[in-house]
Each structure stands twice: as C-alpha cells, then as structure tokens.
Amino acid sequence: DTGVSQNPRHKITKRGQNVTFRCDPISEHNRLYWYRQTLGQGPEFLTYFQNEAQLEKSRLLSDRFSAERPKGSFSTLEIQRTEQGDSAMYLCASSLFSGGSYEQYFGPGTRLTVT
Amino acid sequence: EDQVTQSPEALRLQEGESSSLNCSYTVSGLRGLFWYRQDPGKGPEFLFTLYSAGEEKEKERLKATLTKKESFLHITAPKPEDSATYLCAVQARSNDYKLSFGAGTTVTVRA
User: Taking chain B, what is the end-to-end CA distance rounded to the nearest angstrom?
Assistant: First the structure.
C-alpha cells in the first residue's frame, strides 16, 4: 500500500494525559498536512510542513499541540494535557508540491477520545 | 475568510435515481475547488479538482462542474456503493496549502 498511513487508528485517553500520533506520507510527497475533523463537520486545517520545515500553523493549534517532521519524512502530532474538547478525528494528508497541482491525499485518520 | 456551504445536508436516493449536490463558496480569488468522498470512519478520498469556471470533470457516475460562485456534483444512476459523504473544499490563490472544507452532503443510495 503506497498511500498515507496513520498510527494508531484509535486512541482513548484520560483528560490530562499526553498523546502522540504518527503519520507516514506518500514517499515522494514533500508536503505534509494535519487537519482535525469533528462529527458532522468537514476537516479543519491545523498545520503543514514542506520537507522538514513547519511553514504555517492555524490559530486552532493551541500551545498544547506540537508537530514535528524530522528529516522531512514521517510526522508526529503531540497533544499535551488533553482536554475533552480535543476529541476528534486527526487526519494527515500529503501532496507533491510542484506548482502545477494542489491535490492533497488523506490518510485513514486517528480517532481520539478523551474521557 | 473562505466559506464553503454544501446542500443538502443529507440526500436519500433510490438506486438509479440521478441527483445533484451543491457547493457554494466565497473565496478571495479561487485557486482550486476540490471534491472528496468520505466513507464512515475513513479519511477523505480525492475525486476531482476544478480550477476555472466552466470546467467539468467526470469519473464513472460522477460529474463535477464549476461556476464563479458554486460547484455541482452530479450523480448519474447511482448505485448503493456510491453511498458516502461528499466533501467540497476550496483553496484561495493567496495560499497554496490550506483547504477550507464544507460540512459535506451525506448520500444514501437504497437498492
């Protein structure tokens, strides 16, 4: 399978705990994006990387959230001191930024439940 | 701020009953409009990109069209496997990274 992969697929945690998600993009893609989706809504942009550089962060990304993409390959999204409002599907997407096409390809997501 | 409104919220169709989904958008300079399909518990699956008014794209029973204010996704003679949530997203010319999504239209096709 050469698509975007995410792990874990599901995570249940207690309020106040830290969680970390991993995303492996399509291998030749140089851009990686994180989105959050709540029930009945479309995905909302959180942040993105071009290679290893984090170029933009949404104001939705509070200081409890941090993302990294070491060496421009996989990425991790960490949430510290989780709150019930963090419960959502966290989606990763990747794209090949070549100036001609802008399609983003999504992974299966990580469903986070904060109890 | 970019805005995307999709209608209807839900659509129930009989197999073979063609219909259209609407995506109205407000964006300061459209770079592209994207259609995705999302099955329950899964990530969005890319369908089409439209870049300019008048453009049309087709894939199997789906056809997407674009005007300066809205896009339509036409489903011709749908089958039960076309049941899914269809998401519309726009990207403004001022950025080349962020997709702004609508809430989606959930389509259910009964056999």
Answer: 41
For residue A8, the distance in angstroms to the closest alpha carbon of chain B comes to 13
- As a whole number of angstroms, the longest Cα–Cα distance in chain B is 44
pLDDT in tens, A36-74: 999 999 999 999 999 999 999 999 889 999 999 998 899
Query: Per residue in A73-101, pLDDT tens?
Result: 999 999 999 999 999 999 999 999 876 67
Residues of B in contact with A107 (CB under 8 A): 43
- Whole-number Cα distances in Å, B45 to A75, A103, B14, B102: 20, 11, 23, 15
Sites in chain B below the pLDDT cut of 70: none
**Cβ of residue B54 closer than 8 Å to a chain A Cβ:** no
Q: Annotate B76-86 with b (16+ C-beta within 10 A) or e (fewer).
A: eebeeebbbbb
Chain B contact set for A113 (CB, 8 A) = none
**A contacts of B32 (beta carbons < 8 Å):** 102
Report the pLDDT averaged over residues A31-38. 97
Is A42:B105 a contact under the CB 8 Å cutoff?
A: no
State the nearest Cα–Cα gap between A43 and chain B, in angstroms: 6
Query: Could you tell me the end-to-end alpha-carbon distance of chain A, in angstroms, rounded to an integer?
Result: 33
